[in-house]
Write a structure and sequence with these properties.
Layout lengths: L6 H18 L11 E2 L2 E2 L2 E7 L1 E17 L2 E5 L4 E6 L6 E2 L4 E5 L2 H65 L3 H33 L5 H30 L3 H28 L3 H34 L1 E3 L4 E6 L6 E2 L4 E6 L4 E7 L1 H4 L7 E6 L2 E13 L10 E6 L12 E18 L4 E2 L5 E5 L5 E5 L4 E6 L5 E12 L2 E6 L6 E5 L10 E3 L13 H8 L2
Parallel strand pairs: 3-25
Antiparallel strand pairs: 1-2, 3-24, 4-13, 4-17, 5-12, 6-8, 6-11, 7-10, 8-9, 10-12, 13-16, 14-15, 14-17, 15-16, 17-23, 18-21, 19-20, 21-22, 22-23
Helix pairs in contact: 2-4, 2-5, 2-6, 3-4
């Protein structure tokens, strides 16, 4: 059970404490017809009630405005002249309904220009892509040709070296036979190379072999053809005999073929520079592709600008404000229309810091509006905003309320009664029965034998009970929730005890009392004194 006392309860108890303190200082002869007559003070007449269990609720008055969850302000998303406005204030609109249309003539022209730019950029990209493919093909062909040139130069060098060696060695019968054999071998190699070349040409035309295989066969044929010619020439020289100038010419041929081989090797090394052509073509392609992407983005943007000229309602609702007219130049952000769905109206009150900890989702709220006098709308808290306002240090609530007839409109001022705490099955007494204790005061409680005893009290609240022999008993109590002139007692009382509700400030602990409305006004024993004598002592 929560024993925290509401601030309103503390204020009420402070007001109640003044007469109670004054009463405690009086003797038994003060008020209520009591006085010193005969042998002692006369009983004080009081009113009582039975202590019992009940329910107490804390109702907090709140104020705030009626708001709407669906309250939209439509504004222009592009700059253009307003061509049409289809609704006025108070008109009912549906989600997706055209509300305002702007002139899109210039924007549509921009779209056509952007489409042309995209087509041109795509064409450039295709061209650059073809250039990249051509650069790669040229590079591969150049590399293959350089390798073939090196093979041919080496073959020609070997042939020149062989020819020079033969001329330098002189003519012998064996040399003639050897030359003839070499010629025959060269002829056989040439025939075989020619046959292979013809076969590869046929296979290449049929698509059965790669171009590189055909190039290799062609090179082999050319080499064997050169070897055969050299062999013939060599045989002719061997048969005819060699002269000094022939030997010198053969040597010069060797030197020439060596130079040709060196040039072929150098050319192969320079082929790698052709990679720069591929790199440059690829860079141009990337730039063209970026231009395509940029042109497409421009097209999308311009198409969006055209779409923005048709402003539709995002919700079902009622037009609350028409803020534009045909002919007006609406720039980006210009307010055009306000649409409110009154079916989503809710109450947004504020509560204090003290009430924040006691308030939670689901608490009931009874809402009234000054504009709709006499009508009460039951609602429930659906959200407690987590942050307080800087200036007032208050917290806002969102309270859902039924609004079947759309009577509550956004902007209305409303008042509410928040029930943020309900304690059930607790001891509840009239708040007027509470009295403040003195710091160093003494309370006289009845013992089990009915005699009075002194007990030091703590600074808290107390009530007066009627004990055995109709004697007043000061009973310390702990007070919980105080609301609607009632107080919750968290400790100190038990159900069935007799509580003095009026006149408690006129009696002293241990003084006899007379219960109003009881025959004899208290002469004799109280009907509940036997049951209460033990529970009343503290």
């Amino acid at each position: 059970m929560n024993t925290k006392m509401h601030p309103a309860g503390r204020a009420l108890l402070f007001l109640l404490a003044a007469p109670s303190l004054a009463g405690c200082g009086q003797n038994g002869g003060a008020g209520g017809g009591s006085g010193h007559k005969g042998n002692g003070p006369q009983p004080v007449t009081v009113q009582v009630t039975q202590v019992k269990l009940g329910t107490i609720a804390n109702n907090v008055p709140v104020t705030g405005n009626i708001q709407a969850l669906e309250d939209v302000q439509l504004s222009a998303k592009t700059t253009a002249r307003v061509a049409q406005v289809t609704v006025r204030e108070g008109d009912v609109v549906r989600a997706g309904q055209l509300i305002v249309r702007q002139d899109a003539t210039d924007l549509e022209a921009n779209v056509r220009q952007a489409q042309a730019n995209v087509q041109a950029a795509v064409a450039n990209a295709y061209s650059d892509q073809a250039k990249v493919a051509q650069a790669i093909t040229t590079y591969k062909q150049t590399v293959q040709q350089a390798k073939q040139n090196i093979l041919l130069a080496r073959a020609q060098l070997r042939a020149a070296q062989q020819n020079y060696s033969k001329l330098k060695g002189g003519n012998r019968p064996q040399q003639i036979l050897q030359a003839q054999a070499q010629t025959a071998q060269a002829k056989a190699n040439l025939d075989n190379a020619q046959t292979t070349l013809q076969r590869n040409q046929t296979l290449f035309q049929q698509g059965a072999i790669a171009k590189a295989d055909l190039d290799t066969a062609t090179t082999t044929y050319q080499v064997d053809q050169a070897l055969y010619k050299n062999a013939l020439a060599n045989q002719s020289l061997v048969v005819a005999g060699y002269q000094t100038q022939d030997v010198a010419a053969a040597l010069a041929q060797v030197q020439q073929q060596q130079a040709n081989l060196q040039n072929a090797i150098a050319n192969e090394q320079n082929v790698s520079l052709r990679r720069d052509d591929i790199t440059a073509a690829q860079a141009a392609l990337r730039q063209a592709q970026a231009q395509v992407a940029q042109a497409k983005q421009s097209l999308i943007y311009n198409e969006q600008q055209v779409a923005f000229t048709s402003i539709t309602s995002p919700i079902d609702g009622i037009v609350a404000a028409r803020e534009t007219e045909p002919g007006q130049i609406a720039t980006v952000g210009t307010n055009l229309m306000r649409i409110v769905n009154v079916k989503t109206a809710y109450f947004e009150p504020t509560i204090s810091e003290e009430d924040f900890s006691e308030t939670s989702v689901g608490d009931p709220v009874r809402v009234r509006s000054d504009a709709l006098s006499g009508k009460v709308y039951p609602g429930k808290v659906v959200a407690v905003y987590p942050a307080a306002t800087t200036g007032t240090r208050t917290f806002s609530l969102r309270v859902n309320i039924p609004n079947p007839r759309n009577e509550l409109r956004p902007g209305m001022f409303a008042r509410g009664e928040l029930q943020n705490r309900v304690d059930r099955n607790v001891i509840v007494i009239p708040a007027a029965a509470l009295m403040a204790q003195l710091q160093s005061g003494l309370a006289i409680n009845a013992s089990s034998t009915g005699e009075a005893s002194n007990t030091t009290l703590t600074p808290d609240q107390q009530v007066m009970l009627v004990g055995p022999n109709n004697k007043a008993i000061a009973q310390p109590v702990k007070v919980g929730l105080v609301a609607n002139n009632q107080a919750e007692i968290t400790s100190g009382l038990q159900p069935g005890q007799t509580l003095i509700t009026e006149g408690a400030g006129l009696v002293q602990p241990g003084q006899a009392v007379s219960i109003e409305g009881q025959p004899g006004h208290g002469h004799g024993r109280h009907p509940s004194e036997t049951a209460n004598s033990g529970a009343a002592s503290s």
